[in-house]
Sequence to fold (265 residues):
Amino acid sequence: MVSLLSHPSTEFNCEPLALHHSYPAPHIPIAFNVFRIDFLLSDRLLSNPYVEPPQPRDWEIHPTHPVHSVPYYLAPLWDAGLAARSAERKNAAPKTKSQFQASADDTRGVVSKELREKLKRARGAKGLLMDLEEEVRKFVQRCAEQEHAAEMEDIPSDVDSSDEEIVFVGRNGQMSDMRGRSKSRRHLEREMMIFDSLEGDQGASFGRFLIHHIGNYYGLRTWSVTVGNPARREAYIGLRENKAKSGRCAPAVLSPMPRPLWVIL
Fold:
């Protein structure tokens, strides 16, 4: 038996085997890729008729935005312009702050953006809004009727500290302060509790949120108090007092009433 390895005429060439190997040497693809990339870049540059070699300034560090050099003698004018802009921003800040603290006339009949966004996310709250608003509209209508009746009878709707106190003496000698009774009666008529809940009730905060926005929509003042034991949160609405030229406070009632919120939203 003759072995091929011991035969002198047998030559083995391993190079073709390496070329057809499925995993070539690492240096072959790397050199090929670099050569291919250089070839493509050179080809693109050669095919561009407007190509220019890089200048030394291209390698310098400089801003890419246009730079405006201001002469030195214009510096005071430049500072004056910056000072004027700063003053405008300072004056605009209190103005924007006062917009959030707008008067009742500015917020009457205006639906706040916050209320719209809240009701978009809570569609089921429209029924609660309807119930609360109906109570508020009844209160406003009742106050408007009382003011109209007071005007017809020529009775002042406000109370001034300079008015004389009227005291009636009964048959048994007892005195009654009618001014105090009428004042407390008017005070009860000008405010009303709309909503109450336990202090720890997390869901009730949304009801108070609706009441405050309903009050702003109808030009009323709203507030919440904590009373009792266990503690309860009560939400109230009341008439705003407009300061007249005479120095007296007159209740402000929105007339005519705007469209209901639950219809608009």
Summary: Residues 1-31, 180-188, 244-250 have pLDDT under 50 and may be disordered. DSSP finds nine helices and six strands in the chain.
